[in-house]
Design a protein that fits this description.
The complex is a heterodimer of chains A (about 300) and B (about 750). Chain A has about 300 residues and is an alpha/beta fold. Chain A has six helices and eleven strands. In chain A, the strands form three sheets. A seven-stranded mixed β-sheet of chain A has the order 6-4-7-8-11-10-9, with helices on both faces. In chain A, strands 1-3 form a two-stranded antiparallel sheet. In chain A, strands 2-5 form a two-stranded antiparallel sheet. Chain A is globular and about 45 Å long. In chain B, about 25% of the residues lie in helices and about 30% in strands. Chain B has five domains: about 1-85 and about 730-760, no CATH class; about 90-220 and about 690-725, 3-Layer(aba) Sandwich (Rossmann fold); about 235-325, C2 domain (Immunoglobulin-like, Sandwich); about 330-575, Class I glutamine amidotransferase (GATase) domain (Rossmann fold); about 585-680, Macroglobulin (MG2) domain (Immunoglobulin-like, Sandwich). Chain B is an alpha/beta fold and about 750 residues long. Chain B starts with a helix and ends with a helix. Classes of the chains: A alpha/beta (about 300), B alpha/beta (about 750). Chains A and B meet through helix 3 and helix 6 of A and helix 9, strand 17, strand 18 and helix 15 of B.
């Protein structure tokens, strides 16, 4: 049992976070001290379900004398992948599905993570393409909406190399059989032949920082209150945490299925978002970070 | 030219050195001589005053020659005498010590063995030399090799001893002959001492007793042509699977610039092979061999060079070294102050290594820790160890990015004591809270670090550099950071590794510390110390200033099959805990001895806090090659705290197993095991040339003489005039030495010739 119990006034933390550095995308950055802060320019217009290549994303590396991935021990890194983007309704930017909740969810998660865990983490988001060789400088990456993933061959190669070298991929926010099939198809291209297994609750992931004894379904914003169910599709009522292991039993991929941790992080400051779920999301998020950096 | 000296001056130089010069003429003769001198002065004056056709120059020359002539005559008339002490015939003893080791069988260039000279020159009834000695002295013979003993005569010599102990031979002869008037000891040997004991220990009592030693050096100074595989430096115990870099010293005569292979093999086959190009005659060449030992147990590793055409000695082309390959799991505590990828990748790097157990204690919140690889739920339950017993259970300690203020002063002192007293291995790994940045300057831990720490930098001066690693010469020679099969490959592999980052600016190591890896960056005026080490007290300390060595595993330029990161950490951690002592440490002086040779077994005993204890019950259980079991007690030596010894004599040939256990107040302190091997040794064939300098030194420091077979003929006379024992003073006339008569004739002849040349006759 950790010193931080669930009774800790997390909400106060979140309020502080929301009113501080994380609450607005207009927040002025502190001087950049990493070389791999990646931002995305608006993508070219495409059809709603057309595939959007990550290569289309223009990356901008801010000028810096510091080596990429240099000073800090941890960069919360989001994987940029090709997929069927959700343009039009995310923040008006029309970015690909990889950018769901980005960057607010990332920043908000980092603020709380740094309050909970004694970690030297970079304060801001960090996104990188799966086909970028510099991906290897960030051994823990996060991908969302992987049910809309459609990896290019370069991305498959890049992600495979990343995972086989020892990197870990956390995926989140995809629901139901159809999206599972889409993700499974892509991840099998990356790691052919490796089984996807259910992680039991006695797996060390669930006790790396907090003791988690139940896998909760974390709803998207607007769900889980007022009688609205937490699930998004009828075939997505049961949440899962699954994993893919390497030959030595090391966890390579953590799959949060039928759940949306990212939304909980992004909307944790909202009085309408259930505290139960945001608390759980931060707990399992902290566990994934601590586990992923030590195992 | 001793013969010319003796011809001119009647006696040998040695006699002059030993004797006192006096004039023996009685006083009345001296007065007469004084009158003669006065007359001479008158004569000289008459020369100068006399008128004639001689010039002043002519007179001066002739007067000088005439005075010289008179001077020689005067010198002879004063009866010059040498007073010398000589031994009384047949009232003194001489000990003759004969080397009975195998090296005496080595043939010289003519094919004659060294022992042939002994048989020819020192066999009673067949040797004039020996008869001459026997006429003056009572002779006592001794043989010596690994041990010395009294023998009746050279007929008992076998020349089969497997080692030579010169000091022991001198001690034994001196003690055996201590009750008789001893004129000296004669030592017949090639001087090859294979035990290496300081000879001074044996010379001091001889000097005190005034016993001269006459050494006779046998054999050639250099055996040629020959290749000798000399020194091999190897640890006595290693962890299973550890990489080893062993320096092998090869010397030669007659094979200059020849390239030969150095082969390393054990019972399973060849472990490594390295080509070496030989240097000038007698010049040692060092070659470095890389190999790995895998099977647990006591292993014999043989280093050999194939016999070359024409080699005179083939037995010195190989060396056997015994090494204990340990299969234990070395337990290392890794304390990390915050979640870092370094923890994950270090653990993965060693996860296939059954001999390393890295217990991780990672601080995840100010008072919250993640424990990994602990043996039970109680281990480290209270965080970082607070007692020495708790900390000293580990053999190594790694501290990552954790500020010094996290620890209490007692804990900081305990970390320093962990190295200096317990003998553990310690490493500090770079990070934002390590070294100066973590406030470690001024703490007891700074004292043990191999690098110099400056004051903590201001926030604006925070250092960050991307460093390309490069090995120093010391690093190239260090087994712990070898990535390739040889030095060249290792150097090349290190140069291809991607750069790591460091946030701790460190450029200097302390005196006595060694930099193994430097970090280079264009922006830096001086290279960064990336990895340095030093010994501190009983332990070893490393400083690794990089914060992300995991990049050597993850970087896109590193192929997936590359094992550099794994190899680096496995070897580094193995080296860090190599030789870390346990509560009971048993040892013997040499792992291989002769059957019947006494062995001293030593054990060092400490308690759980590694304080030496003197009241332990220490026993050794010795199992012979045939299974016979013997138990002996080891006693505290009194001279050193915690040291216990016992002697035993292995009589069988083969491998002995020795298990030493210590108990205190009925509780077991610990146990240790070692292997002892009994076999005949080839040591005699190494350094097989004659050691003239050593033999000369023995002779000079005791007042004796050094001889070769060519000069040994004067030995009886020399002992007579230089020896100790019962002596009498003898006067030896010098007036009739040929040199005086020659001088007189020269003076006379010169004057006559001068007169002829100058027309004065």
């Amino acid at each position: 049992m950790g010193i931080f119990s669930r009774a800790r006034p997390l909400y106060a933390v979140l309020i502080a976070a929301a009113s501080g550095a994380c609450g607005s995308e207009q927040h002025a950055r502190e001087p950049v001290d990493t070389g791999l802060l990646i931002q995305q320019a608006p993508p070219s217009a495409r059809g709603r379900l057309s595939r959007q290549d990550a290569d289309d994303v223009q990356l901008r590396l801010p000028p810096s004398d510091e080596p990429p991935g240099g000073r800090h021990a941890f960069y919360w890194t989001r994987a940029i992948y090709s997929g069927y983007g959700r343009r039009g309704w995310w923040g008006g930017g029309g970015r690909g599905s990889w950018a769901t909740d980005f960057p607010k969810g990332d920043r908000q998660f980092l603020v709380v993570l740094k309050r909970l865990v004694r970690i030297d983490a970079y304060d801001f988001e960090n996104a990188i393409s799966l086909s970028d060789p510099n991906l290897r400088r960030f051994p823990l990456i996060y991908a969302v909406e992987v049910g809309r993933m459609d990896l290019t061959d370069e991305e498959v190669t890049g992600l495979r190399g990343f995972l086989n070298a020892g990197g870990m991929l956390l995926v989140d926010d995809f629901w139901g059989g159809r999206e599972w099939a889409q993700f499974e198809y892509n991840i099998r291209r990356v790691l052919p032949g490796r089984p996807i297994v259910e992680l039991p609750l006695d797996h060390p992931l669930f006790s790396a920082y907090y003791d988690i004894d139940e896998i909760k379904q974390v709803p998207a914003q607007g769900r889980g209150v007022g009688g609205i169910p937490t699930w998004e599709r009828p075939d997505a009522q049961v949440p899962h945490v699954r994993g893919i292991f390497d030959d030595d039993g090391n966890l390579m991929v953590v799959i949060n299925f039928n759940t949306d941790l990212g939304d909980a992080w992004e909307w944790a400051e909202s009085p309408y978002y259930p505290l139960e779920y945001s608390t759980y999301a931060f707990e399992i998020g902290a566990n994934m970070i601590v586990y992923g950096m030590s195992h | 030219m001793p013969d010319l000296f003796e011809f001119l001056f009647k006696y040998r130089r040695l006699v002059y050195e030993q004797g006192d010069f006096v004039f023996a003429a009685p006083a009345v003769v001296r007065w007469w001589l004084l009158a003669a001198v006065a007359a001479s002065a008158v004569a000289v004056a008459s020369y100068s005053l006399a008128r004639g056709k001689a010039s002043p120059m002519d007179r001066t020359v002739m007067a000088t020659l005439r005075v010289a002539l008179l001077g020689v005559l005067l010198f002879s008339l004063l009866q010059p005498t040498l007073q010398i002490s000589t031994v009384v015939p047949q009232q003194n003893f001489v000990g003759i010590l004969v080397d009975d080791s195998r090296s005496m069988q080595l043939p010289d260039a003519s094919g004659a063995a060294r022992s042939d000279f002994i048989r020819a020159t020192f066999t009673p009834g067949e040797s004039e030399l020996l008869e001459a000695m026997a006429e003056r002295f009572s002779l006592r013979f001794f043989s010596f090799s690994s041990r010395a003993r009294r023998i009746e005569g050279p007929g008992e010599l076998t020349f089969d001893g497997t080692s030579t102990d010169l000091p022991a031979a001198l001690d034994v002869a001196r003690e055996e002959l201590s009750g008789v008037p001893l004129s000296g000891l004669v030592m017949l040997t090639d001087g090859a001492d294979t035990r290496g004991r300081p000879v001074t220990e044996a010379l001091v009592p001889l000097q005190a007793a005034g016993v001269p030693v006459f050494t006779v050096g046998l054999g050639e100074e250099a055996v040629s042509p020959d290749i000798e595989l000399g020194r091999v430096e190897m640890p006595r115990a290693v962890l299973e699977g550890s990489s080893m870099v062993v320096d092998v010293v090869v010397t030669q005569t007659g094979f200059r610039q020849t390239t030969v292979p150095v082969i390393v093999e054990d019972d399973t086959g060849i472990l490594a092979e390295e080509e070496v190009t030989l240097g000038r005659a007698g010049e040692p060449v060092v070659t470095r061999v890389h190999f790995q030992l895998d099977r647990v147990g006591s292993r014999r590793v043989r280093f050999r060079i194939p016999t070359q055409d024409g080699e005179r000695v083939t037995q010195n082309n190989r060396r056997d070294v015994w090494v204990e390959v340990r299969g234990e799991r070395e337990k290392i505590l890794y304390f990390e102050g915050e979640p870092r990828h370094e923890v994950k990748f270090l653990r993965r790097a060693i996860q296939d290594d059954d001999n390393l157990q890295v217990v991780v204690l990672q601080r995840t919140a100010p008072s919250k820790f993640l424990r990994l690889n602990v043996d039970d739920g109680d281990e480290l339950a209270g965080g970082f160890p607070r007692t020495r017993e708790e900390l000293y259970r580990y053999r190594g300690l790694i501290v990552g990015s954790a500020e010094a203020s996290f620890f209490t002063h007692d804990q900081l002192q305990m970390i320093a004591d962990f190295v200096s007293e317990r003998g553990g291995g310690f490493m500090m790994v770079g990070g934002r809270q390590a070294f100066s940045e973590g406030g470690w300057a001024g703490t007891p831990v700074e004292e043990i670090l191999p690098v110099r720490l400056g004051p903590p930098p201001a926030a604006a001066d925070r250092f960050l550099a991307e460093l390309r690693p490069g090995l120093t010469p010391a690093g190239l020679a260090n087994a712990a950071i070898q990535l390739g099969g040889d030095a060249e490959e290792t150097d090349s592999l290190w140069r291809t590794l991607p750069p790591v980052t460091s946030v701790n600016r460190i450029t200097e190591v302390k005196p006595g510390a060694t930099t193994l890896i430097e970090g280079h960056a264009e922006s830096l005026d001086r290279p960064q110390v990336l990895l340095a080490h030093q010994r501190y007290g009983r332990g070893k300390v490393l400083a690794l200033t990089a914060q992300d060595t995991w990049i050597w595993q993850m970087h896109a330029d590193i192929p997936l099959e590359d094992q550099s990161h794994e190899t680096f950490w496995r070897q580094l951690l193995r080296w860090m805990v190599d030789g870390v002592p346990e509560p009971v440490v048993a040892s013997v002086e040499r792992e291989q001895v002769e059957p019947g040779e006494p062995v001293r077994l030593t054990a060092e005993i400490v308690d759980s806090t590694y304080i030496q204890v003197n009241d332990a019950q220490v026993t050794a259980r010795i199992t012979s090659p045939t299974g016979a079991i013997q138990e002996i007690s080891l006693d505290w030596t009194v001279e050193r705290d915690g040291e216990y010894t016992a002697d035993f004599v292995p009589t069988e040939t083969g491998d002995y197993e020795v298990e030493v256990s210590a108990a205190r107040d009925g509780l077991t302190v610990g146990t240790d095991a070692l292997a002892l091997h009994t076999a005949r040794s080839d040591d005699e064939y190494f350094g097989a040339g004659r050691r003239s300098r050593l033999l000369q030194r023995i002779a000079e420091e005791t007042g004796g003489q050094y001889y070769t077979p060519a000069t040994v003929g004067t030995l009886p006379d020399d002992i007579s005039v230089t020896g100790a024992g019962v002596t009498l003073v003898e006067d030896r006339d010098l007036w009739d030495m040929p040199a005086l008569f020659i001088l007189m004739f020269l003076a006379m002849g010169a004057e006559w010739a001068y007169r002829r040349v100058r027309g004065l006759v």
